[in-house]
Amino acid sequence: MPLRPRPFRSARPEPGILEEELPETPIPEQAWPRVRADELVTLVAHVFAAHGLPEARARIAAEALCHGDLTGSPETGVADLTRVHLPLLKNGLVVPHAEPLMIADRGAAALIDYRRALGLWAVGDAMDRAVTRAGRFGVGLVSLRGIGPFGRAGHHAARALPHAMIGLVLAAGGEPGQPMNPLGMAAPGGAYPEFVFDMDRPGPEAAGLTLLVEVLAGVLSGVADHEHDTGLLVLAIAPTTLRSADGFYRAASALFGSMLGWDGGAPIRYPGWREAQHLEQCRALGVPLAGPVRRELDALARSLGLPPLTSVG
To answer: Mean pLDDT for the chain?
Structure first.
């Protein structure tokens, strides 16, 4: 019997009401030139490889960096390539070939020092290791330190989703002046889009949450100098080790379906819904890039002897 999603919280407004009640908001990305998503990721991967990253690491890093542009958060996307990541690689604060050092391995849990590796790759690698452990033990926990800026925590947590697992990333510390997403979570949504959540650095009123992150990500990993290092907790959970896949799917569908509805003429959606829509749009229509960012990328392409990005539309 096919699963039937729960009804929305309230009825959909009558035709015409939504247009009257929703304020008109400008969408600057509509005026930005668009480029092919695969070309964008490939170019960024080539740039990282040209700065010493092995090919596989460069691709993972490029996917993590482009995540913001592909999901509607360009402020944390490829604009950071020349602003944050390349300067750290050039001045040696991030080591492209750094080999992770396993400090402790306890089966389901491990502590790893990434020795100043590029965070865009290292956190994804840690999640992949956590997923492998969760496949054996039901849960995989990797505590890590010694990385550079890593982008959005939610992207790395979402690496657990293709394995039908729940992913969690907590981060403490970071480079001075660099904003950070200290908490990211991703979970299968059942019949609905996947849940992907990012939380920026909590304010002083969230002291309890701050301490939770500091203990699990900073204290556990052994990061003492928060000004020049980042400690993280990366966790993968395999739900089917505790219950049937069908039961989990139905429960997730019921939960996320119950979150949908309308409030005062505005749609109610959970984190991950709009990002999934934006990703689908970017793959079909191209990724919008601000003019200065596009010019920087084209200049990098020329410096590597590569063709500029292809405009779409």
So the answer is: 88
